[in-house]
Amino acid sequence: MGLVVHESGSFQHILRGVGRRYANLVCKKADVDLSKRAGELTQEELERIVTIMQNPTQYKIPAWFLNRQKDVVDGKDHHVLANNLESKLRDDLERLKKMRAHRGLRHSWHLRVRGQHTKTTGRKGKSI
């Protein structure tokens, strides 16, 4: 399910990490008609879309549009796609748990993380 261009008859699956706005922006940068369906794209158009998705900063896509800004490891802006997105999220949660941050502890205890009230809701799976 990576960003590999296959033969023209095969169907390209939906990529995780690509929303509507990012997809529209990539199609505009690649000069692809937005009213075309995915199966109607030519091989050349698919290659342009793939190269723009793999290197968004080279095609002047702003940093605020990317889904991984100021990465903890290298401090650069990236747009993470497909399976890498799940592994990056898992790594972030493991880092929070390892440093014993409040969010990491809440994740490890399987509690709500973002400040929700938990007195009466979220009792599934726990004894009352």
Automatic annotation (TrEMBL):
> Would you say which domain of life the source belongs to?
Eukaryota
Q: Which GO terms describe its molecular function?
A: RNA binding; structural constituent of ribosome
Q: Where are the transmembrane segments?
A: none
Q: What UniProt keywords are attached to this protein's entry? A: Ribonucleoprotein, Ribosomal protein
A GO CC annotation recorded here is: small ribosomal subunit
Q: Name one GO biological process term.
A: translation
What the entry lists under InterPro entries is as follows: Rbsml_uS13_C (IPR027437), Ribosomal_uS13 (IPR001892), Ribosomal_uS13-like_H2TH (IPR010979), Ribosomal_uS13_CS (IPR018269)
Q: Which SUPFAM superfamilies match?
A: S13-like H2TH domain (SSF46946)
Family, according to the entry, reads as follows: Belongs to the universal ribosomal protein uS13 family.
PANTHER family (UniProt xref): 30S RIBOSOMAL PROTEIN S13/40S RIBOSOMAL PROTEIN S18, SMALL RIBOSOMAL SUBUNIT PROTEIN US13
Instruction: Spell out the protein name for this chain.
Output: 40S ribosomal protein
What is the species listed in this Swiss-Prot or TrEMBL entry? Pichia membranifaciens
